[in-house]
Design goal:
Layout: H1 3-27, H2 32-47, H3 51-58, H4 60-67, E1 102-110, E2 121-126, E3 146-150, E4 156-162, E5 167-168, H5 176-183, E6 189-190, E7 193-199, E8 206-212, E9 231-232, E10 235-237, E11 240-248
Parallel strand pairs: 1-11, 8-9
Antiparallel strand pairs: 1-4, 2-3, 2-7, 5-6, 7-8, 10-11
Length: 253
């Protein structure tokens, strides 16, 4: 796409967004006081540093759904704000600490023809037993609760992690993002989940999540990211919970 085409596309999309907002204001005869209330809420979002949070909450999954219109492989899902590109390489286990329950993650990655894909770099990251992510404070370094693994010649990897805890999408329930979720009749807790990002030259990158059957917030996820094909029944082997995954990558565009 040329520079001019990019400019024209941006003009079209931004113009449509503004026109859609204007249409909603007219449709509901929004008053000046209501407009100002929304205006001040947007300022509150900026002051609280929650603009990325509110965008992730209400728009990220929509982009993933659009992406799936041109994909045949595994479902794309919200990346969220806690991905770090420089997570450590691991082999058998991701480092954890604190009061955690072990979770063995096993996966086979294949192409659309069902052939295994070796040497896929997979980022895995998940919350600790408090619902926190590593790498965002000096006392919680990024070499815990996240790591990169590589598929073998059969397209497989197996790595030990831990069962993550659910956590609030908005850290402050009375903050600006929490207020919007509450206004729309929702709740702020994200269900337990593990994040994945699959990368291999020649294949479209895949960012996704895995959820666990029976988790209490599955049907009220504030970001709308839970789907049946991403929700898995954990097995138990030798007293350890096991998450078995089959992942299919699309070819690169």
């Amino acid at each position: 796409m040329s520079g001019l085409e990019k400019q024209q596309r941006a003009q079209t999309i931004v113009g449509d967004i503004i026109n859609a907002i204007r249409d909603v204001l007219r449709k509901h005869d929004v008053t000046f006081n209501e407009y100002r209330a929304g205006f001040m809420h947007l300022i509150g979002l900026a002051k609280a540093g929650e603009v990325p949070l509110v965008l992730d909450c209400f728009l990220n999954q929509t982009i993933c759904d659009i992406e799936m219109k041109t994909r045949q492989g595994s479902r794309s899902n919200v990346e969220g704000p806690y991905f770090l590109d420089d997570a450590p390489m691991v082999t058998d286990a991701i480092k954890v600490r604190g009061d955690t329950l072990p979770l063995l993650i096993r996966c086979q990655v294949k192409d659309l023809q069902g052939q295994p894909i070796p040497d896929v770099i997979t980022d895995i990251w998940f919350a600790d037993s408090n619902g926190d992510y590593s790498g965002y404070s000096e006392d919680f370094p990024k070499d815990y609760f996240r790591g990169k693994v590589t598929t073998d010649s059969d397209g497989k990897y197996a790595v030990m992690g831990s069962i993550p805890k659910e956590y609030p999408m908005a850290q402050d329930e009375d903050g600006p993002t929490g207020k919007i979720i509450e206004l729309l009749g929702g709740q702020i807790m994200r269900p337990q989940h593990v994040h994945f990002k699959y990368l291999k030259e020649g294949y479209a990158p895949l960012t996704t999540q895995s959820y666990f059957e029976g988790e209490k917030y599955l049907n009220e996820d504030p970001v709308g990211g839970v789907f049946e094909d991403l929700t898995h029944q954990l097995k138990e082997e030798n007293g350890v919970a096991v998450l078995d995954l089959d992942v299919v990558l699309d070819p690169a565009e």
